[in-house]
Write a structure and sequence with these properties.
The chain is an alpha/beta fold. The protein contains 11 helices and 16 strands. The longest helix has 29 residues. It starts with 7 loop residues before the first strand and ends with a helix. The structure holds flavin-adenine dinucleotide (FAD). The site of flavin-adenine dinucleotide (FAD) has 41 residues, from helix 1, strand 2, helix 4, strand 6 and helix 10.
C-alpha cells in the first residue's frame, strides 16, 4: 500500500491545539514537520477557552501570582515549573500579540484584565469570551503559511514506534479512509489534549480521550498524577447528551453569584475551583437537586453583552435571558492536571518523545489548576519542547525505522476500547496509591 506519509519527517506532532501549533511555529524552518489532528483543525479545546490567559502584571505581582498558583494546586506544584511559566508569560503574550491576537484593551491602549477564582488580583487577559479561538485561530493561520509544515486533519496517532529505547515515529490512522500508516520521524510530540471524552459529562470535545496517555502507558513511558482531574463548578445544566457548555469563571470574577433553591448564596464564588465544586455538590445533596443557579445579573447588562456574548447567546438559545434570570449550572469534568511526565523542556522518559499541553504533566498545576493558567502553560512548554527537539543529541542505534506489523492496528474499535480501559485503570490505580500515601502520612 502506498504510504501517504512517505520518507522521514524531522518532527511528528500529534495534536493541533495551542501546544502543537505553537511548537510548530518554534521549530527551525528547515524541519520537515507533520501535524495531526484527530478531528478538524479547529476542533480542539484550545478553540473553546473562554476566560482568558494569565500574564504577570508587573515584577511586584510575581510573589502573589506564584502564591495563588501554589495555593490552588494544594502546594503540590513544582516550584521551578511555576516560576518558569510565570516569568515566561510577558514574552509569550508579546508573541501572541505579534501573531495578531487582539486582547481587550482600555481607552489608553493598556490590556484590560479580568479575574477568576483563586486569583488575588485581576491578571487575566481576554478577548471577549472567545480568548481561545482568538489565540488558536491566529496560530493555526500562521502554521498554514509554513512551507515546512504538513497538516493532516482527521488523522490520529494510534501508537508510537520505538527502537533501541528511542522513539522513531508513530502509527497513524486516516479517519476518512480507515487506512493505517507508519510514519518515520526523528522526534515526536504528544500534544493530544485532555481526557474529557472518557467522561459522560465534560466540557471537552468528545474526541479528546487521553490518547497521548494511553500510548505512553502502552510503551512504558512515565506518567504522573493521572488521578488529578479538575471538575469545573459551573457548566450549563442540560438533560441533553454531549459536550457540556462552560460558563466561564470570569463571569463570577465580574460579580455573578451562586444561589441555592431558596435564592440565597451558599459559598464564596471566587475560591479555587475544587472548593467551589465541593460547595455546589454539598448544596445539591442538601436540596436533593440536580443543579444550582448562577445569577449573572450583578455583572450588569453592558459587561454581559460586551465581555460574554457567547455565553449570553448560548443561554438565550436554551431559553434563559441572563440579564433577567439565573441559569441552572452543575459541575462537570473540565481539565486534566496529570499526564505524560515531562521535564522543564517537555522531554518524556523516552528519548525522542516529547509532550506538551494538557497531555503533559510538568508540575505547574499541582493537584488543582489555577484558572487561566493552562493556555499559558501549554504555550510555554510547547516553545521549550521545540527548542529541545532542535538541540537534543541524535538517536541511539542506526536511527532507522523498525519493521512494523500494521495488521496489529486493524481492529480500531478494539484498540480504542483497550486504550480507554487502560487509562481509566491507571487513573484508578494512581488514585488508590495516593489515598494510601495520604492515609499513612
Ligand atoms: C470549555 C473550555 C474552556 C476553557 N477555558 C480556558 C481558559 O479560559 N483559559 C485557559 O487557560 N484554559 C482554558 N481551558 C483549557 C485549555 O483550553 C486547554 O487546557 C488547552 O487549550 C489545551 O491545549 P492542548 O493544545 O494541549 O490541547 P487541545 O487544544 O485540546 O488540542 C488537542 C489536539 O489533539 C488532537 N488529538 C487528540 N487525540 C489525538 C490523536 N490520537 N492523534 C492526533 N491528534 C489527536 C485533537 O484533535 C486536537 O487537535 C478551557 C477548556 C475548555 C474545554
Amino acid at each position: 500500500m502506498e504510504n501517504r506519509f512517505e520518507g522521514q519527517y524531522d518532527v511528528l506532532i500529534a495534536g493541533m491545539g495551542v501546544a502543537g501549533l505553537f511548537c510548530t511555529l518554534h521549530l527551525p524552518a528547515d524541519c520537515r514537520v507533520l501535524l495531526l489532528s484527530k478531528d478538524g483543525a479547529d476542533k480542539s479545546d484550545s478553540f473553546l477557552a473562554q476566560g482568558g490567559i494569565c500574564m504577570l502584571r508587573s515584577p511586584e505581582d510575581y510573589a502573589c501570582y506564584f502564591e495563588d498558583t501554589v495555593r490552588a494546586g494544594h502546594g503540590e506544584n513544582d516550584p521551578a515549573a511555576v516560576e518558569l511559566m510565570i516569568r515566561s508569560s510577558p514574552a509569550v503574550i508579546a508573541e501572541l500579540v505579534g501573531f495578531g491576537v487582539d486582547f481587550a484593551r482600555d481607552e489608553k491602549g493598556n490590556f484590560r484584565r479580568t479575574r477568576e477564582g483563586g486569583h488575588s488580583v485581576p491578571r487575566i487577559l481576554f478577548h471577549g469570551d472567545e480568548t481561545g479561538r482568538a489565540i488558536a485561530s491566529r496560530l493555526l493561520a500562521a502554521v498554514r503559511q509554513l512551507p515546512n509544515a504538513e497538516i493532516a486533519e482527521y488523522c490520529e496517532l494510534l501508537d508510537i514506534v520505538a527502537a533501541d529505547g528511542v522513539c522513531r515515529g508513530g502509527i497513524v490512522r486516516d479517519g476518512r479512509t480507515g487506512k493505517v500508516f507508519a510514519v518515520s520521524a526523528r522526534r515526536t510530540l504528544l500534544a493530544s489534549g485532555g481526557v474529557g471524552g472518557l467522561y459522560e459529562n465534560s466540557t471537552n470535545y468528545r474526541h479528546l480521550t487521553g490518547d497521548g496517555v494511553a500510548v505512553a502507558l502502552k510503551n512504558g513511558v512515565q506518567t504522573e498524577h493521572l488521578d488529578y482531574v479538575q471538575i469545573h463548578p459551573t457548566t450549563f445544566y442540560s438533560e441533553k447528551h454531549g459536550r457540556r457548555f462552560l460558563i466561564s469563571e470570569s463571569v463570577r470574577g465580574e460579580g455573578a453569584v451562586l444561589l441555592g433553591a431558596d435564592g440565597r448564596r451558599f459559598c464564596n464564588e471566587l475560591l479555587p475551583r475544587d472548593v467551589v465544586t465541593a460547595a455546589i455538590r454539598a448544596q445539591m445533596a442538601k436540596e436533593g437537586s440536580k443543579f444550582v443557579r448562577l445569577d449573572m445579573r450583578p455583572v450588569g447588562k453592558k459587561t454581559l453583552r460586551e465581555h460574554f456574548p457567547t455565553i449570553c447567546a448560548h443561554c438565550l438559545a436554551e431559553g434563559y435571558d441572563v440579564t433577567k434570570t439565573p441559569v441552572p449550572v452543575v459541575p462537570a469534568q473540565h481539565y486534566f492536571m496529570g499526564g505524560v511526565k515531562v521535564d522543564l523542556w517537555g522531554r518524556t522518559s523516552m528519548r525522542g518523545l516529547y509532550a506538551a499541553g494538557e497531555t503533559a504533566c510538568n508540575g505547574v498545576h499541582g493537584r488543582n489548576r489555577l484558572a487561566s493558567n493552562s493556555l499559558l502553560e501549554s504555550l510555554v512548554w510547547a516553545e521549550r519542547a521545540a527548542q529541545a527537539m532542535a538541540s537534543d543529541g541524535t538517536e541511539a542505534g542506526d536511527g532507522s525505522f523498525p519493521a512494523v506489523d500494521l495488521s496489529a492496528y486493524a481492529d480500531y474499535e478494539g484498540l480504542k476500547e483497550g486504550y480507554a480501559a487502560a487509562v481509566r485503570a491507571a487513573m484508578q490505580k494512581q488514585k488508590q496509591e495516593q489515598g494510601e500515601r495520604e492515609a499513612k502520612s
